[in-house]
Amino acid sequence: MMNVGIIGLGDMGKMYALGFAKAGYTVYGSDLPQRREELNETLNPYGITILEDGKEVSRICDVIFYAVESEKIEQVLAMYGSSTKYGAIVAGQTSVKHPEITAFEKYLPKDIQIITCHSLHGPGFDPAGQKMIVIPHRTSNEAYQRMTDLLSCLGSELVEMKDYRDHDRIVADTQAATHVGFESMGTAWASAGFFPWENASYLGGIDNVKILTTLRIFSYKAHIYAGLAILNPFARQQVKRYAQSESELFKMMIMEEEQEFRNRLYKVRDFVFHESRKPLLLDDQVMQEFSLSTSPGVRKANSHLSLLSMADAWYHLQINPYDNLICQTPPFRLRLGIVEYLFRNEDLLEESIHAALFDKSIRADDLEFHSAVREWASIIGYGDMEGYKQHFDQTKLFFKDRLEHGREQSSAMIKRLTDQNTFPSVPF
């Protein structure tokens, strides 16, 4: 049985360590010195040994996972990479592979096998049944077989991608651009000073998904999303296009350019939701169930500017989002599902178009969203990692009392929707 090492025992690192230990592997781990006592108390009962540092882990382990922040991967490899056991397999669990592969090639000895991976879910999800991307960057067939045998014990659906660049290009859409859309909604609501579930414009199935997914994202740590958006070389282009689509649509709305606005959106619909696409068909009844509102109220029409902008960006980038389901995450599935729901329901799409152009009662909300998209796009465009984290945490603070409940509700909603739908997938 192989020795498995985890360098970085945050939420994801611990999830991996526990999964491998339960499968019978001998697991070693390391983290910052000040966390050693806490980690010993938490992980020793499962047979996981906490070593002094990553150098000790690297010397004795046959497979080593680096589960550290994307922005710190080079710094950590510089300290421990040269100590890697001869012929070992090394993987990363960062969501952006460009800086990870660069660091691996720079600091690992030439005899080391590089087979990196990416679990497409957060630590709050059981990995069983979730997708995991596996990238055989530099490996022999025998080492690759050993690695996939090891990863299979987690119960995830393994999806092979040959090139880390393809991974980052798709993840720029499924994660970075997806997160910015929901982060902008959260920032807009916080700036306006209201909770959306207390507002009649945000009642109904689509808005329940928007709200719960936004709360889910803000319930996690800022650095996860900052690295995805700023260190992925493909993300800035996609976020910039999203902001451009939103701005162009918003200008048409305030100018009440009805024909041009409608023609543009129907052109988007015909491309993105062409009849050849296999639809997700989210269940409206299930979406309706998961409301945070304490009083039903009467639903008001909503422009759904955030969703119109998502589809418009896909059209202008000539992206078929259904192809990107190979790297789907729960928020991306929901994002695509609700945009699809809007564009495939002509009555609802027409209601949104009319509200966007002529309903002045929601114009203030749309202006807040427009400003929020600009802010997020500027931060990402400047590559401002600290600014991203501060902006994220400021919005997180506004929703702090509902984040845990929102994450629980979103998990339950995702499970219900997943149970009732067969999402397209690519087998390993």
UniProtKB/TrEMBL annotation:
<feature type="domain" description="Prephenate/arogenate dehydrogenase">
    <location>
        <begin position="2"/>
        <end position="283"/>
    </location>
</feature>
<dbReference type="Pfam" id="PF03807">
    <property type="entry name" value="F420_oxidored"/>
</dbReference>
<dbReference type="InterPro" id="IPR036291">
    <property type="entry name" value="NAD(P)-bd_dom_sf"/>
</dbReference>
<dbReference type="InterPro" id="IPR050812">
    <property type="entry name" value="Preph/Arog_dehydrog"/>
</dbReference>
<dbReference type="GO" id="GO:0006571">
    <property type="term" value="P:tyrosine biosynthetic process"/>
</dbReference>
<dbReference type="InterPro" id="IPR008927">
    <property type="entry name" value="6-PGluconate_DH-like_C_sf"/>
</dbReference>
<dbReference type="InterPro" id="IPR003099">
    <property type="entry name" value="Prephen_DH"/>
</dbReference>
<protein>
    <submittedName>
        <fullName>Prephenate dehydrogenase (NADP+)</fullName>
    </submittedName>
</protein>
<dbReference type="GO" id="GO:0070403">
    <property type="term" value="F:NAD+ binding"/>
</dbReference>
<dbReference type="InterPro" id="IPR028939">
    <property type="entry name" value="P5C_Rdtase_cat_N"/>
</dbReference>
<dbReference type="GO" id="GO:0008977">
    <property type="term" value="F:prephenate dehydrogenase (NAD+) activity"/>
</dbReference>
<keyword id="KW-0560">Oxidoreductase</keyword>
<dbReference type="GO" id="GO:0004665">
    <property type="term" value="F:prephenate dehydrogenase (NADP+) activity"/>
</dbReference>
